[in-house]
Amino acid sequence: MKKKLMILVICIFSIFAFVSCGEEKDSQPVKVGFEKEMSYLTNPTKEIIENTPPESRHFLPIFAKLTYKINNIEEKGRKAVVNVTFNGLNMDLYMREYFDYMMNLEDFDKYSDDELREIAIKFFEDLVERKDLKYTDKTLDVAMKKSGDEWEVKDYKKLIEILAGNPYELAKSYDN
Fold first, then answer.
1. CA-to-CA distance for 41 and 49, rounded, in angstroms?
2. pLDDT per residue over 2-33, tens digit each?
3. How far apart are CA 83 and CA 86, in angstroms?
4. Is residue 128 within a helix (H) or strand (E), and if so which, with residue range?
5. Cβ(97)–Cβ(168) below 8 Å
6. Which residue in 57, 53, 138, 126 sits closest to 94, CA to CA?
7. How many helices and strands, by DSSP H and E, does the chain display?
8. Which of the 8 DSSP states describes residue 134?
9. What is the pTM of this model?
10. The domain containing residue 26 runs over which residues?
11. What is the largest CA-CA distance in the chain?
12. What value does the mean pLDDT take over residues 56-67?
């Protein structure tokens, strides 16, 4: 009886181990793809910085402070959803501060677009050097798609808008 019970326990343990390892292995390519995409934000190369549109470069120092934890991955064919908790600067708070700062510039209309970009970059570079920064967690479902053999974020622009405090919506509120 004891021998049969041991065999049953070993079989159940083996099945459990097999199923767990299978799930991890299946989601591994999605995880690798997600982490590669996030490295573009958290640790951009010189090439990525140079290819970032000038109007977005001021966000790069902010994204370098971003950390994340993958909670779950659901893969279905060539699509996947990565549930992830991001920890980063409270951009809702700091984007308001940024817009207030920009709107209060003396003779705002006299600055060229290039000058305003430089002012924005300086603002965010100074921001990340502060000692009193406030951080927040955001848990999101990030849609991924398989492109060839690689996994990539399906809507990168939307992800960046969410992580950057949705600056476009905030800018609209200043127009009113």
1. 10
2. 444 344 334 344 433 433 444 444 679 999 99
3. 10
4. helix 113-129
5. no
6. 126
7. 7, 4
8. -
9. 0.70
10. 2-175
11. 90
12. 81
Burial (CB < 10 A; 0-12, 13-18, 19+), residue 89, is: buried
Cα–Cα distance for residue pair 101/104, rounded to 1 Å? 5
DSSP secondary structure code for residue 57 in this structure: G
- Type of residue found at 131: K
User: 154 exposed, middle or buried (CB, 10 Å; 0-12, 13-18, 19+)?
Assistant: middle
Give the bridge partners for 85, in sequence order: 69, 139
| Residue 72: both structure tokens together | 């779950």
Order the strands of the 135-147 sheet from edge to edge.
67-76, 79-89, 135-147, 150-153
Residues 55, 38: Cα–Cα separation, whole Å: 20
Are 5 and 53 in contact, with CB atoms under 8 Å apart?
Answer: no
- Token pair 């501060």 is at which residue? 97
> Which two tokens mark 164?
């950057």
pLDDT score, position 167: 59
| Number of structural domains in the chain | 1
Reported as a single tens digit per residue, the pLDDT across 74-130 is 999 999 999 999 998 888 888 889 889 988 888 888 989 889 888 988 898 898 889
